[in-house]
Amino acid sequence: MSLWSAKDAVAATQGRSTADWQATGVSIDTRTLKPGDLFVALNAARDGHEFVAQALAKGAAAALVSRIPEGLPAEAPLLIVEDVQKGLEDLGRAARARSEARVVAVTGSVGKTSTKEMLRDVLGHQGRTHAAEASYNNHWGVPLTLARMPVDTEFAVIEIGMNHPGEIAPLASMARPHVAVITTVAAAHLEAFENIDGIAKEKASIFEGLEPGGVAVINADIATTPILRAKAAQHAARILSFGTARGAHHRLLNVELHDHVTVGHARAWRSPLVYKVGVPGRHFAMNALAVLAVAQVLGCDRAVAMADLASWAPPAGRGTREELVLDLASDGMSIDLIDDAFNANPTSMAAALEVLAAAHPRDGVGRVSRGRRIAILGDMLELGPDEAAMHAGLADLPYMARINEIHCVGPRMRALWDILPEARRGRWVASAEELAAQAHRLIDAGDVVLVKGSKGSRVSLVVEALRRVGRVTEEGQV
Q1: Range of 170's domain?
Q2: Span 151-160, average pLDDT
Q3: pTM over 0.90
Q4: Which of 46, 104, 130, 418 counts the highest number of beta carbons within 10 A?
């Protein structure tokens, strides 16, 4: 099925096409390009024009360019525009304008990708749903997601992120959501803002893009809720809140953390709810409550939505849990790995440590007589001048007393390692590569191991090393 014709793309971008073509997708990377894609030659880490010939050789329908690359044949199918980034944005706006989909936009300091993925699963069983396959939430990710949206989409979920002030509002205006969700506001990218209030104001600018009659869904539990509510009141026809606070429309009353699921007890205004999420984590129960609020706004079947949440699992690196078998010849010779290595800030770190503290190691199966809860923690980046205190402050979390051993990776995480009690202090290393090389010495059968850190800390290397030590069970995620 055609996504873009040359005629429609020219009308959207006001560009010039050198040939007639039909594209079935949109790509910005020749490594993942599929035959029939329109290749967009963005100027990112490298100039995309260098890869146009390769894209066409791999079967691209055409290439969106701002100049004709050298060496191309005269008949090469090109869509020529003044600026490729703007051309992609034009395609995104045109795709949004021609769609009758109900659009949900999601932002937040923590949980936006997981919430987007929950919404993809929940809405996907209630209508044709479109969402980015990865965390495409920036200046090129949002227009790319929109440009890829099929014409017959019924629900679209658009994730919107930021690193600096002024980034969210233009992306929200491009997405034009009917529902805008803020999962939470926390100390993330704080070095670019004066304080948490500044982050809240930037997150709240998502409401500037709401369609007439649009609904704002906000977290009721945070200190900056009044900032979110005030901004929402300027742009939303209705405001729904979720959280544990009195007065929250979707109020979380109690959370039960089990090894492989979370059970939430809540009230949706006057209706009692008991729901499961297919992964442990209080934060996942909160995100799921926001999803149920969105489902209500969109008129979805809530019973079906709750059933879908019960089988949901997070994307890789965001709290996925799996069993790694260390010895196939002996029963029970395995560890449980919690892979949360994609991102970190104090709020998400606390949530992950709570999950680890609630986990149940197995005794009597390894070299060590008792199974252990082990945390491997990498640096939390972009926290600003108070970063050392924020890292050291993790030691004060109530869950830390239940964690047997804590290994620290990176110069910032040294602040935590220095104040850990000797009995729970593991190793400190300057780089993830050093700890990855020692991975086989860190674990024993029966252990539950959490790996958590900002993407830039590269603790995902430790995850990869642990997977090489063990084998993932046939069931995959546990």
Answers
A1: 99-310
A2: 98
A3: no
A4: 104
Give 477: exposed, middle or buried? Use CB within 10 Å, 0-12, 13-18, 19+: middle
pLDDT of residue 471: 67
Question: Contact, 33 vs 95, CB < 8 A?
Answer: no
Q: Is the dihedral of CA 300, 301, 305, 306 positive or negative?
A: positive
Average pLDDT, the chain: 93
Residue numbers in the known binding site are 108-114
pLDDT at 367: 77
Sign of CA dihedral 169, 174, 177, 183: negative
Q: Specify whether 305 is located in the same domain as 324.
A: no
How many Cα atoms occupy the beta-carbon half-sphere of 452 within 13 Å?
28
Annotated binding site for ATP: 108-114
Same domain? 274 vs 128: yes
Q: Which two tokens stand for residue 273?
A: 């709810």
In a domain, 169, yes or no: yes
Tokens linked to 36? 């029939």
Last residue of a domain, one of 83, 112, 129: 83
Q: Is there a domain that residue 88 lies in? A: no
Residue 163 or residue 161, greater confidence:
161
